[in-house]
Amino acid sequence: MTSSDMQQHPSLSERLARLVSDLQSRGVQISDGVQVQEIPGRGIGVVARRVIPAGERIVQFPVNALLNPRTVKAAILQEISDGGQDAASSIFKSTARKNQDVNERKRLKRHMTVKSQVGKYADLLDSLSSHQVLAYYLYREKLRRDSEWNSFLDVLPTLEMLHVIPLVWDLLDRGRKRLLEYLPASTYDHAARMSNQFWDDLKAVQDIFIKVEDIELFIWAWLCVNSRCLYYEMAEARTSNDCMTLAPVIDFLNHSDQEHCSVQVYNAAQAMKFFGLVTTCSYDVGEEVYLSYGAHTNSFLLCEYGFTLATNKNSELDITAELLMILKRGGRRSCDRDNETAKMESSKLKFLEAHGYLGDYTLSLDTISYRTEVALAVAQVREEVCREPTSDEPQARTLERSQLKAFIAGMSNGWKFKAKSTEMLKAILEEVVKNSDIVLSMSNDEVKGDAENRDNIRRLYVERKHIARAHLGLH
Ligand SMILES: C[S@@+](CC[C@H](N)C(=O)[O-])C[C@H]1O[C@@H](n2cnc3c(N)ncnc32)[C@H](O)[C@@H]1O
Questions:
Q1: Closest of 192, 225, 226, 250 to residue 60, by C-alpha
Q2: Residue 47 belongs to what H/E stretch?
Q3: How many helices (H) and strands (E) are present in the chain, helices listed first?
């Protein structure tokens, strides 16, 4: 490589060094005890350079240097303040105000000052979720040559590196879309929900900002935000969904299911507010420093972040799809299975929904969730038990309904349903083992695709099979 190549294509360690020095100039303090570096199989990560005790603050970030809806909004409004109408029209769509009252628009036009415009654009920005604002901001900054966030943008994963996320298989395909068919139903449903969310977010962004021409770049930005954001409560946030923040360097910590570090917000000198990262265990030299992203299952980690853990203490077997199939059948024999109307009209589903128990049926290695127990009980009663009582109904039905309701309310241990529930669950779990074996016995040629994706899919089935077998008493 020539020296001009090296300048144009700096190595990862050079880019990381540039980011660290850039952040330091923004007041971010990074302990000399840690180093950001490439970690085989996990992209970039953070490693201890010396022994680090538990309780050491390793990164301290002034909150006004974070990238979140509050700071992004301030940056965009500043740009409009400085650049006037030209700047505003390079960011916002001219029809973004179309819903405003016509008289109000005329009034604003007459008295249009930069100040009044800023207020109007602030309202538009406030109408977006933090994910939408941040994705759009990263997208836009990536298109600018002179972004003040270049050193950060330069170390983010490329879209090609994000091919491990099922949403990317769906949105970009590139021969990977068929991998979706191998996913367990619950993982597939999670990926499908993310896909809907992505298109909703793109629409919300396009309603306000000028057209997103480069969809692939927006996918990249949306996924970077999704897989790197941390939770930071802002007073103006309407819901917890509005509390996303990007904090470069802290976002290089990889996930572990064990407690390793915690994120804290605190006041320091001169009443400055900081977002900090503190160790909760000690580290030896060379050890990787982790953060827990939450008590996530491998299915969740794969969909949201594109990886799975070899052993995950939050492992779960999700049998929602299998149980819903039985509930939708509404106790009919299997020849009625494809009757869509019958499915939609299932009183059992409506009953479960009314009681807050529709969906999310899981088993961990040693427990069956209460939601699953409730669904199994509902699945075994007659459809009529889940309907409104009629004046002429048999007494046995009224009794069964009150037993079911008592179980749901936690007033009875559900002994009446136990035997049948065990039998139904056994059949579901045997099916889970059988289906897992089918996927696990497939050769690489059959599953095709990148080894990483194949391994992640297989891991989901190994985990499903393991939990199913434990409940079948086969370990
Ligand atoms: C918040 S970022 C962490 C920094 C990231 N490694 C990078 O290169 O920028 C989250 C991403 O890191 C990767 N990651 C995090 N924890 C991991 C783990 N335990 N094993 C494998 N990959 C992991 C995944 O690609 C995930 O989407």
A1: 250
A2: strand 43-48
A3: 19, 12
pTM summary value: 0.91
Closest by alpha carbon to 154, among 2, 304, 13? 13
Enumerate the domain spans of the chain: 67-246, 317-471
Shortest-distance Cα residue to atom 20 of ligand 1: 42
Nearest residue (CA) to ligand 1, atom 15: 254
* Distance in angstroms (rounded) separating the CA atoms of residues 41 and 164: 12
pLDDT at 236: 85
pLDDT digits (tens, 9 = 90+) for 82-97: 988 889 999 998 766 5
67/130 Cα distance (integer angstroms): 10
Full DSSP string of 214-278: -HHHHHHHHHHHHHH-EE---TT-SSGGG-EEB-TTGGGPEE-SS--EEEEEEE-GGG-EEEEEE
Q: Which amino acid is at 447?
A: V
pLDDT value of position 344: 47
Name the CA radius of gyration of the chain, rounded.
Answer: 27
Tokens 């589903």 locate to 349
Which residues have any ligand 1 atom within 6 Å of their CB?
42-45, 157, 227-228, 251-252, 254-255, 305-307
- 61 CB neighbour count, 10 Å cutoff: 27
